[in-house]
Amino acid sequence: MAHTRSSLKPAAGFTEPERDAVYKAIFNRRDVRDQFLPDGIAPDVLDRILTAAHHAPSVGFSQPWSFLLIRSEEKRRQVHQLFTAANEEAADLFSDERAKLYQSLKLEGILNAPLNICVTCDRTRGGKVVLGRTHNPEMDLYSTVCAVQNMWLSARAEGVGMGWVSIYRHDALRDLLNIPDHVQIIAYLCVGHVEELYERPELEVKGWADRLALEDIVHEETWPESKTGK
Amino acid sequence: MAHTRSSLKPAAGFTEPERDAVYKAIFNRRDVRDQFLPDGIAPDVLDRILTAAHHAPSVGFSQPWSFLLIRSEEKRRQVHQLFTAANEEAADLFSDERAKLYQSLKLEGILNAPLNICVTCDRTRGGKVVLGRTHNPEMDLYSTVCAVQNMWLSARAEGVGMGWVSIYRHDALRDLLNIPDHVQIIAYLCVGHVEELYERPELEVKGWADRLALEDIVHEETWPESKTGK
User: Fold this and answer.
1) Which of the residues A78, A136, A143, A194 would you substitute to probe the B interface, choosing the one with the greatest number of B C-beta atoms within 10 Å?
2) How far apart are CA B120 and CA A228, in angstroms?
3) How far apart are CA B24 and CA A15, in angstroms?
4) B24 Cα distance to chain centroid
5) Are A91 and A103 in contact (CB under 8 A)?
6) What is the ipTM score, two decimals?
7) Interface of B with A in 39-78 (CB under 8 A)
8) How is B35-79 classified by DSSP, letter by letter?
9) Average pLDDT for consecutive 10-residue bins of chain B (230 residues)?
10) How far apart are CA B121 and CA A110, in angstroms?
11) Is B158 at the interface with chain A, CB within 8 A?
């Protein structure tokens, strides 16, 4: 196909400052729950963040994602109620010190953040047979997650914080947002400007868990025999 | 908790060139199948890419990911056989012009790329109850996908291309790489330096699918009534 060869161009090289800027976004990105400012997000900034999402990789170029922008306080209050109900169930699974610590954590910014974004995956987009999904049907979900991570990093570069809320019942949120059955909710995001961020992940700072050593999770050639058990 | 407040610092602002560099990585990232150079990846470059992956967000800070680095040609040949078998099955699902186009596409760089990386998710890491996974048990899979997208963008900034292969049978690849049952394969990646890239996604360039208009996939407040059917 003659036109394909001409579409290959020299890969745009990155200068060292450009490379460092990419790492700055990656290493300074935080899951934000409580540092949101009330100021709205300018339309051009939001447009850039959504355009970044839309340029994520997608299986068979199926672009299965959609973005519901939720700004109304009424709607956010309703979502917050769903979170609160689910969070009480979740908290009950911890005991003693762990329960106390869990209850001290703020796990969402649904009301603090001026904008919530529900990111969905249309399981039917791209038709019945999607290139690359035959043996791995979950690939469309993964594509949508790549879009979320693009949003997170571009938001960071725009001075905007983002937090991913995963404590809610799917069916309840689906009903509230009128999302049809063939569309799966992937992420519920709280989005707003931030001036302060944790230097390290909040759950690390607050003693919930430690960062693993990289050498313990990188292996050569095959899974190590010593780690095949649970 | 007194120590938490002091861990909040002014969010590092991005200059306009830094912001543009982040978008450069996002918009110039490609799913690479055929433009790999044979040169190996320097250890410090690979270390930065894996460190970027390890700084992805993870549910309850569970860091469920592991990375198998596959360099041996023998092992890559075996993986390539798994791909070929699955790809024949997948190709059979298309007919006529679509089948012809499918068969003309190169869908993996398993042998071209000097390095393959299998990214996995340990479903048991973080213990029986993981903060944020109670109502959405798939969140650990999604965390691992965020790590893949971090790799993809940092690789781009390093002049390294990456392609995600999803055409294989999970069980076959799991057996080949000795991966235990509680660990799920998320991505099989081909990784190598590149000098040329497609200006737009390869499947768009080759006429497989068109890019959707952003305004068709962004909605306000709730899912639009007009789009609730399949």
Assistant:
1) A136
2) 13
3) 11
4) 18
5) yes
6) 0.96
7) 47-48, 50-52, 54-57, 59-63, 65-72, 75
8) -B-SPPPPHHHHHHHHHHHHTS--GGG---EEEEEE--HHHHHHH
9) 67 96 98 96 98 97 98 98 96 93 95 98 94 95 98 98 97 97 98 96 95 97 80
10) 28
11) yes
DSSP B93: T
Three-state DSSP class for residue A136: coil
Q: How many beta-carbon pairs under 8 angstroms link A with B?
A: 364
Q: Supply B112's token pair.
A: 């071209």
DSSP letter string, B117-185: EEEEEETTTT-SS-TTTSS-TTHHHHHHHHHHHHHHHHHHHTTEEEEEE--S-HHHHHHHHT--TTEEE
Domains of chain A, start order: 29-202 (3.40.109.10)
CA distance B67 to A216: 10
DSSP per-residue string spanning A111-132: TTSSEEEEEEEETTTT-SS-TT
Residue B7 with chain A: CB contacts under 8 Å: 198-200, 205
Q: Which residues of A touch B188 (CB under 8 A)?
A: none
